[in-house]
Structures are given as structure tokens and as C-alpha cells.
Amino acid sequence: MKIIVGITGASGSIYGLRLIEVLKEAGHQVHVVLTESGEKVVKFECPDIYERILSSADMLHDVHNIGASIASGSFRADAMVVVPASMKTVACIATGVTDNLLTRAADVILKEGRRLIVVPRETPMHAGHLENLLKVSRLGAMVIPASPGFYHLPKTLMDLVDMLVGKICDSLNVENNLFRHWDGNME
After folding, report:
1. Which positions in this protein are listed as binding dimethylallyl phosphate (predicted)?
2. Binding site for FMN: which residues?
3. Is-above-0.70 flag for pTM?
4. CA proximity to 21, closest of 50, 42, 61, 43
């Protein structure tokens, strides 16, 4: 599959970086676009893995290059994941404001009827945030809040990251063993 990963300035950039890593390991073509704030946050939160993971992407797109391949419906991306998704980016997607390559690519994915997953990482949320998330859902996007579960009995921070990335992969139909899926057994 061809998958676009968008990373915005919300905290939680480890989710986006880990998703890129998992998708590449699974053999998928990965196109990445970071907002300017997203790049700053990634460098701040994950300085030790930033270069290694981004260099594994098939293509790292400039957020200002509105003429990039992913800005067109004729680019046959199978899906796009915005992870983490800032509330500004969610608002732009909800209202069709395509002020950069990331929001343009998301708009194209929606207009072409392809899978868009938005992973908000904000708390608490006010009514405007919730309304915009409802709007993107009504437009056809899947909203997966960055709120990992605990039924897989995590022992490390990366266990929590992998659980959420595993849920994203499940939604993309990407096979993974990133966490123990619930089997109904509490023993």
C-alpha cells in the first residue's frame, strides 16, 4: 500500500514516527509530510530517533510544496494518517482549508473516498474541538484518539505507543503484533 503519514505540532510525535517505522517494516510505501510546528515538536520530543525514522520514508515532502504528488487525486495513495493531529489541522480538514501540503493531501484523500485517519492528541477538548472532530468524521475520516488502553498490560512507555500504533494499523488492515488484542480472557 501507499500510505501518507502527516505529523503536526501536537505533542505525541512518537506515534507518527513509530507508525512510519512499522509501515516500512511491513513493506509499505510511506510518504511523510510534517508541518513546521510538527518538525519542531519531533525534534524536541524525539531527537534521538528523528533522523533515523524520517530517513526511512520513501518520500519526505516539503509542507509548502503544494505541487507535490500527494496534493493530487491522481496520486493513488491508499490511505493517510494524521498522527498526531493538532486541533488547528483538524479544524482545517473539517472546513476544507488547504493552507499547506498536509491539509491539501488530507482533503484529496477525502474527496477521492479513500481512508483518512485522524489521531488527535489534545486534552481537555472544548466544544469547538469536538465539533471539528465530528465534522471530519462526517466527512468520512476515522478518528482514533491518542488514548491507549491498558488491557494488554503495558510495562513500558513504548508498550503504550505500540498499542495505539497497532490500533491504527488494524484500521489500515496492516498486519501487526504490536499489542495483545483482547481475547476475552482475563486470566
Report:
1. 151, 167
2. 9-11, 35, 86-89, 121
3. yes
4. 50
